[in-house]
Amino acid sequence: MAAQTTAVPRRLTFLQFAIALQTLSLLFQAVTAGMLLSSAHGAVLHDVGSRVMYGASMLYVLAAILAWRPAGGSPRPILYASGFLVLASAQVALGIAHLPSLHVPLGVLMFALSLLALARPLLTRISKRSSR
Question: In the chain, which ranges are continuous DSSP H helix?
Fold first, then answer.
């Protein structure tokens, strides 16, 4: 008789939580950037959101280090997180310098990269299933 297996729901790791927070903060930044065009509150929200986004990027670095060292994971996420913190630093500098021609495309790139990092575990599981 064949044994039935059921998928055990996986818990969200601290690293995945940090990436999700970063992705959501970048989405918030996109929304408040649009609000800048039509509302006085958009500037305040975008400013506050930039601080949250930068903090989320630092949390991503911390989570990547904690996932690597104590848990014995791969050091590769530290490289991704550090690179993202560099992009976040450039994004803040471009925003302060009022260079929207560079600030906006970099924001779009950062959101796309963060979304890919968030989806990576799901895509890995799907590719493993299809290779069976």
Answer: 14-36, 41-68, 76-96, 100-130
